[in-house]
Design brief:
alpha/beta, Rossmann fold, binds adenosine-5'-triphosphate
Length: 313
């Protein structure tokens, strides 16, 4: 879907990106992570030509991005950033409708889409659609920014630290929302973050950049279990690797199916990392696990936490 071939970008003669090869498959959730100044945002912005690359080739759907008009690229690629970039004199509705209006969607269709997106992002449509950005909190503005990026069902969603200003609870719920949107729509997603846990939770594939170069790319499990260099190992926090691996599995995936146990059940979607916390807080060695309908589907045993998570091993 998106391919970089030996891409380079220079600012004032200094390389920000050098010899970058990337291949982002259709429908994949890719996370770019790295130290500050490693070139994550530059890489993302080169995809929709907010920054033009100086060397190499960038292909979108098999064609060089220079063959697309920048407006066309931006219509096909939603873009959400931490600093939001909402138009201050436009209402929430008008902001979200930016691309649908460019595409001349009928009014009623735009209105319905705005309602749908506000609700998807847990903002009451009637309460928020007529507000202006300065009448929203930072986190609400960020959510409107994500809604705007999604508005015209773009093929690709580019996100640069989109959850940066959110409190941990809203952040976790937005992350879950994005994972759900990704699963439902099969859209290609590229997200920049400096938050390791966010990268591990969201990504199908992580690309770790340092100094304008890819140090390693792979699944979250590969990054944790097969770090290519001491830098990768240190970046993912060698002391926390076990805990982070637990973050990749769920109570549902590790429960022994069919077993029953009285007591307050934990959700099947709970991460094993959170389950560990509950084991310790309850001083228990077994936890009943319930599905979405509240029925117990099995029992999670403390000793099973060390079993490999999906895709590992
Ligand atoms: N417009 C610009 N003019 C000059 N240098 C720039 C410009 N934009 C980025 N750079 C430089 O390019 C390098 C990569 O910047 P970039 O913003 O892509 O990094 P990043 O990994 O996203 O960093 P951070 O996590 O701090 O946001 C940095 O050294 C930065 O100073």
């Amino acid at each position: 879907m998106i391919e970089f071939k030996q891409v380079g970008k220079y600012f004032n003669g200094k390389p920000a990106i050098e010899h970058l090869d990337l291949n982002i498959a259709k429908g994949e959730f890719t996370v770019l992570i790295g130290t500050s100044g490693s070139g994550k945002s530059t890489t993302l912005k080169m995809i929709n030509r907010l920054i033009e690359h100086d060397q190499g080739k960038i292909l979108f759907a098999g064609e060089e991005i220079h063959n697309f008009k920048p407006e066309e690229l931006r219509r096909r690629m939603g873009y959400a950033i931490q600093s939001i970039g909402l138009f201050p004199h436009w209402t929430v509705e008008k902001n979200i409708a930016t691309v649908p209006q460019l595409l001349k969607w009928p009014r009623a269709k735009i209105r319905d889409r705005v309602t749908e997106l506000l609700e998807l992002l847990h903002l009451d449509a009637e309460q928020f659609r007529h507000r202006f950005p300065h009448q929203l909190s930072g986190g609400q503005q960020q959510r409107v920014g994500v809604a705007r990026a999604l508005a015209a069902n773009p093929d690709v969603l580019l996100m640069d630290e989109p959850f940066g200003a959110l409190d941990p609870v809203t952040r976790a719920s937005m992350q879950a929302e994005i994972v759900r949107i990704h699963r439902l729509s099969g859209r290609t997603l590229v997200l920049v973050t400096h938050d390791i846990d966010e990268a591990l939770t969201l990504a199908d594939r992580i690309i770790l950049l340092d100094n304008g170069k890819v140090v390693q790319q792979g699944t979250p499990q590969q990054m944790l279990l097969q770090p290519a260099t001491p830098f990768v190992r240190a970046f993912f926090g060698q002391d926390d690797i076990g805990i982070r691996l637990l973050g990749l599995g769920t109570a549902g995936s590790h429960a022994r199916p069919g077993e029953q146990l009285p007591g307050i059940a934990v959700a099947a979607s709970l991460s094993l990392r959170e389950a560990l916390s509950i084991f310790i807080a309850r001083q228990a060695e077994q936890l009943p696990v319930a599905g979405e309908d509240g029925k117990v589907v099995g029992v999670l045993h403390f000793r099973d936490l060390i079993k490999p998570v999906k895709g590992e091993g």
